[in-house]
Design goal:
Length: 126
């Protein structure tokens, strides 16, 4: 059985470290990007089964990054869980499924809630 791969994209190194440790402990293979401009390259390299995407990031925000990912044939179907502190971050986005946003969490959140959402979209082992 192959281990499921998750890409974490967040500009806060503390959050990336915490999530990376928790997901690794749960049996996931984790790749990270703390700079939004690196997210696309990391996704191409790791071909994740799921992406955890922060919305508020410098240079290229999470929604723009998601649009960029959706233009790539290899990455367009990867499900995305949005993690954001901005409660109205997804207003006006339209159909979230078109952008492959399958779920979202508002910061701060409990890690168990995130694990439940991840498990709903990708098991620890395929």
């Amino acid at each position: 059985m192959a281990v499921s791969r998750i890409l974490i994209v967040d500009d806060d190194p503390y959050i990336v470290g915490m999530l990376s440790e928790a997901l690794t402990d749960e049996g996931y293979e984790v790749t990270t990007a703390t700079q939004s401009l690196r997210a696309f390259d990391r996704a191409k390299e790791s071909q994740p089964d799921l992406i955890l995407m922060d919305i508020m990031m410098p240079y290229l925000d999470g929604l723009d990054q998601i649009k960029l990912l959706s233009l790539d044939e290899d990455l367009k179907d990867i499900p995305i869980i949005v993690i954001t502190a901005k409660t109205n971050a997804l207003e006006g986005v339209g159909d979230l499924r078109v952008m492959r946003i399958v779920d979202y969490l508002f910061k701060p959140f409990e890690i168990v809630d995130l694990l439940d959402k991840i498990q709903a979209h990708v098991p620890a082992h395929r």
